[in-house]
Amino acid sequence: MSNKRDVPFETTLLVRDTCLCLHAQRAARALARRFDEALRPVGLTNGQFSLLMSLNRPQPAAMGSIASLLAMDRTTLTAALKPLERRGLLKVQADPKDKRSRLILLTPEGLSLLARAVPIWEDTHKAVEALAGDEADRLRAHLLALS
């Protein structure tokens, strides 16, 4: 058995130090943990909060528009909706204009929980933005450009 490396260790170090994807993933995981911890008292994860917030609209939302906003495929979105639907926080119903399509809306319970979660998000978001300092707006612009 040969000890020859097909990929030199220097390449591993290069990826570790320069890979934008790796650094974005690490930052996303750290932010997710921070928001998960903050939202735990209201029984939500950061992903569930984002999903509920995306449903906070004057009219029920189509699956496609929510999936696009959250950068999820429909299968993943459907799986994410189920526990929130079981908790009575949202309702999935047929679109009256097209019975094959589904619309999603927040229930009164979902709206109430979201109202309790927003101040938690605001405080956590303010703390995270403070870490970015004067660069917060620039960072947000770059992240939006990448997404």
Report on this structure.
It is a single chain. The chain has 147 residues and is mostly helical. The protein has one domain: Winged helix-like DNA-binding domain superfamily/Winged helix DNA-binding domain (Arc Repressor Mutant, subunit A, Orthogonal Bundle). The protein is 65% helix and 12% strand. The protein is built from seven helices and three strands. The chain has a three-stranded antiparallel beta sheet. Helix 2 packs across helix 6. The radius of gyration is 20 Å and the shape is globular. The mean pLDDT is 94.
Largest sheet: 3 strands, antiparallel
Q: How confident is the prediction overall: mean pLDDT? A: 94
* Pattern of helices and strands: HHHEHHEEHH
Task: Determine and state the CATH class.
Answer: Mainly Alpha
Provide the number of structural domains: 1
* CATH architecture name: Orthogonal Bundle
Q: Order of strands across the biggest sheet?
A: 1-3-2
Q: What percent of the residues sit in helical stretches (DSSP H or I)?
A: 55-70%
Q: What Rg is obtained from the alpha carbons, in whole angstroms?
A: 20 Å
Poorly predicted regions are none
In DSSP terms (H or I, runs of 4 or more residues), the helix count works out at 7
Task: Enter the CATH topology name.
Answer: Arc Repressor Mutant, subunit A
Q: Count the E strands.
A: 3
What share of residues are in beta strands?
Answer: 5-15%
Report the principal-axis shape.
globular
Instruction: Please state the structural category.
Output: mainly alpha
GO biological process, one term: response to stress
GO molecular function: DNA binding; DNA-binding transcription factor activity
Domain HTH marR-type: 17-147
Organism: Microvirga flocculans
